[in-house]
Write a structure and sequence with these properties.
Strand content: under 5%
Largest sheet: none
Shape: elongated
Oligomer: single chain
Radius of gyration: 18 Å
Length: 133
């Protein structure tokens, strides 16, 4: 990962995705990006990058809906066509998969969005550049 805070051009998209998936600081790749499950930390504990103004908000939700929704529908359709179980069995199997899958990918997807915003100097409002002092 690039150690120079002012040179984002050396940071590749894959670097941003890796730090986002690990939920680590987009600048140094070491400090935690989140202080809670989805609460963005105020700053990086390692390099001091100010994360307080950054929040991907609901940006991750459409991607997660498409991904997990396709998995849930595919699983439900497969179970229905292959085994024809009662509806309560489908609900008992598909709902936990959808809920668990959503909770499992929410933080990493939000981390990817934040890291990509940092790489591209994009603020969440469009008027400020994330990470610029």
């Amino acid at each position: 990962m690039n150690d120079n805070a002012s040179d984002r051009s050396a940071m590749t998209v894959s670097d941003a995705i890796k730090s986002g998936l690990k939920c680590r600081c987009p600048r140094c790749g070491k400090g935690k990006m989140f202080s809670g499950y989805l609460k963005v930390a105020s700053s990086c504990s390692n390099c001091g990058l100010d994360l307080s103004g950054e929040n991907a908000g609901d940006g991750a939700v459409p991607f997660i809906i498409l991904l997990i929704g396709a998995i849930g529908v595919g699983l439900g359709a497969f179970l229905e066509l292959k085994f024809s179980p009662p509806i309560w069995v489908l609900i008992a199997i598909v709902f936990p998969v959808v809920i668990g899958g959503t909770l499992a990918v929410m933080q990493p997807v939000k981390g990817i969005l934040i890291a990509l915003q940092y790489k591209n100097s994009a603020g969440d409002t469009g008027t400020e550049h994330f990470g610029d002092s």
